[in-house]
Description:
Layout: H1 11-24, H2 28-40, H3 43-58
Amino acid sequence: MNKHITIEMSDETYDLLSARAADAGVELEIYLVDTLRQRLEDPDFIKSVDERIEARAKT
């Protein structure tokens, strides 16, 4: 089952992501999904996210 989400971002971030998607020759949505999937499969990325969440919880 597919889920739909809304991502809020600044115009600058949108422009940057749109340019990167265009450079890759894909639509922005495809670029975002592929990028998210790659990051979520990266154990170092997950570890860094967990560390930031723990740090926020301590403040």
